[in-house]
Amino acid sequence: MRTCQHLIRVSLAVLLAGWAAGPSAETHDNELDHRDDYVMDSISGGDFRDYISAYIVDAPRWTYSMHTYGNFHNFMHELMSSMARYAATARGDDDKVPEFEHRISGGEWGAYREALEESGEESLWRDLVQITEIMHDRVHHVMAKSLMYDKEMYGRDVDLSEYLRGERLAPGEGIPEPDEVRVNPLSLDEFRELAWRYEAEDKYLHEAVQQMIVFAHMLDDMLTQWLAYGASKEDSACRPPDGAVDKRGEGWSEYAEAISDCEHTEWREFVQLASLMRERIHHMMYKMARYHE
User: Fold this and answer.
1) I need a labelling partner for 162 at 20 to 30 A (CA). Which of 12, 41, 191, 264 fits?
2) What is the pLDDT of residue 180?
């Protein structure tokens, strides 16, 4: 077992060293993005589910993708819960992690991140906690935007204020310029190789790594569904570039870069925000790999 774990650590070190040597692979460990750097729309998981159940029932491809999104959101919280249980037990952060029953909430995760910051801890784990919070908020931001798009696209007779949290952002607000976002992505293939061979001594840490790769595969599947849906748009400016659908989730960044001329604001921003969400999930995989090294 020790020999296997040593080989895994060596493989992680080699992989991450290769990334660090790349032209765009700055680590930014001392200038990591923070939740306070961004403003985002949001909706609770329960309200998202209620809206889908009540309204998104008449567009098969879109309806299926929204149900996928609901499961994707739930699994995200399962992953975060495993990470929180690891922190409370193996790391000894039981005085910082709020008590929760089945799944940790976004607010509880934020409270844990604040407790780490207040303790003065500077570590790869704190970085991972910080990036996970931004990732979580981006997922909820895209959930909120999907409802805005759905209402406009399908003419729903519904007051979104009954579902969304707070005031809605103005068009363009909440979408930072590319150079304002600091991420270190790790690809699905690379993280899958690590998770395939990884065995942690702590059960919750092991569980979190395996859940992370499942979460990443769910993301790939969901983005592929949205690429296929986008390809059916009548306006060519709102469709993904040729070949992007065949690349699955990897084609999403191409879509986000090519959609600036799409005049359907809600769809254009949905695509751009989903790209930011994808970047944060892949950034989280990078930080998790660095931590497990």
Assistant:
1) 264
2) 86
Q: Are 268 and 235 in contact (CB under 8 A)?
A: no
User: What 3 state SS string does 126-191 have?
Assistant: HHHHHHHHHHHHHHHHHHHHHHHHHHHHHCCCCCHHHCEECCCCCCCCCCCCHHHCCCCCCCHHHH
- Give the pLDDT mean for 24-50: 80
- Two tokens, residue 264: 């359907």
Contacts of 35 (CB under 8 A, 6+ apart): 110, 113, 130, 133, 134, 137
What is the 8-class DSSP label of residue 58? Answer: S
Q: Which of 263, 254, 211 minimizes the C-alpha distance to 84? A: 211
Q: Phi/psi class of residue 120: alpha, beta or left (left: φ > 0; alpha: ψ in -120 to 50)?
A: left
Q: How far apart are CA 176 and CA 174, in angstroms?
A: 6
- Which tokens belong to 249? 């989730």
List all residues 6 or more positions away from 145 whose beta carbon is below 8 Å from its beta carbon: 41, 266, 269, 270, 273
Burial of 58 (0-12, 13-18, 19+ CB in 10 A): exposed
Q: Are strands 164-165 and 42-43 parallel, antiparallel or unpaired?
A: antiparallel
Q: What is the pLDDT of residues 204-217, one digit of tens each?
A: 999 999 999 999 99
> What one-character DSSP code corresponds to residue 50?
H
Could you count the other beta carbons within 10 Å of the beta carbon of residue 229? 17
Distance CA 58, CA 52 (A): 11
What pLDDT was estimated at residue 197?
A: 86
- Identify whether the C-beta of residue 103 lies closer than 8 Å to the C-beta of residue 78: yes
**pLDDT at res. 19:** 42
